[in-house]
Structure of Wadjet protein JetD C-terminal domain-containing protein:
Amino acid sequence: MDRLIRTIVFEHKNKRIHLTEIESALKERGINLFADQSRQHKFIKTVDTFIARGILEPLKGAQPLQQYGGLPDRYTIRRDVIAGVGAPLSPEHRNELVSLSPPINIDYYATHGDEYLRDRNHILRINDLILRRGECEVLTVNERSYELFGDEKALAMPDEASVKGALILRNLRLTLVDIRAKQVYEPFFWIEKDFLNLQGKAERTVLIVENKDTFWTLQQAVMDGVLAGIHLVIYGEGNAILKKFEYIETVGGVPDDRYRYFGDIDREGISIYNRLRARYPEYDIRPATALYAFILQKAGPAGARPLRRPQRAGTLSPFLDFFDAETGDAIRQIVTAERYLPQEVLNATDLSRFGDGGLTSAL
C-alpha cells in the first residue's frame, strides 16, 4: 500500500490533495478501505508515515477526520521529497552499510536508501550486538526487542509497536538466534501426580482438558486416586492450548509420554483437537475415548442441545478415527445436527460413584 499511495500522490494533478481523493483512487484500483479494517489501519499508518517524512504537509486549516483516525483532511504534496525517496545513499552511509558485520545481509538496504536512513539507528544497535554477541546472554524476545528498538513489542507484535523490528530483522535476513533472543511460551495451568518421579521409569499419561470446571473435577479425582494412571492434568483453556502446549517441555513432558485430549462434543471442540494434533505430531495426542464414551452413555445423542451460536464447519477426522463405529456415529450425529454435549456432563458425583471403572486403562 505504501508504494501505491505514493504513486497516487505523485501523479495527482494538483498541488494539494484531500484524503477522500486518495480513498477514491484506491477504490478505482479495487481497494475498499472501509470493507477491511486491516486495510483501513494500514492506510492510516501509511499516511501518518508520509506526514512524518514530509511527503504530505497538512494545510493550516485542515480538519481532523475521525473515519481516518483523526488524520488531517487536506495536504500539500511535496513532489521534491517523493522524488528523493529511495535515492542512492551518500558515500559515507554506503561505506557504513558495507562495513556491517556478518551475518547481516545488506542487499535490501543497499537499494532502499531512504529506509536505511529511517532504520539506521536500530540497524547500528543490531550491528553492535552482533559484534559482541559472544559476550551477550540470551534474552527473551521482548527483552531484546526493548533493548534494540526501545519497544518491547517491536519483534513479537510489530503491528502494535512504534517500530517494526520484525521487518528490520527480515530486511537484514537475521533470525532471533542471530540477535541472541529466545521465544518464551505462555504457561498452561497444570497439576501433576508422580509425573516427575516417574520420568524415565514408567509410562506416564497426560490428560489435556478443554474447560476449566472439568479440569478442576478431573485433577481432584487424580489427586484423590479416583483416576489412577493419570500423572499430569493440563487445563487447555479452549483454543489457547494450541500455543500454550509448547510449554510441555518446561514441565518435563516428552513425546514418549501418552497424551490424551478431552473436550466438548461439538465442531469447535473437535477442531481444537485436530489442530493440536496437527501442530504437534511428534506427541501423538489422541482423544480420551473412554471419557467421551462416558458422557455419550450418560446423556446420549438425544440429550445433546442446540448450539448457542453457529460454529465453523470442519473435518471430523482424525478425531473420529480413534473411536469404534458406534461411538463415532453417535458423535457424527450430534455434530452434523448442529448440537453439542459439553464435557461438564461428567461431574464429580459420577467419578466418586463409579470410581475409575477402567476409564484410565481405556483412555
In short: The CA atoms of residues 12 and 77 lie 9 Å apart. The chain has three domains: 2-84, 91-182, 189-362. DSSP finds 16 helices and 14 strands in the chain. The chain has a mean pLDDT of 89.
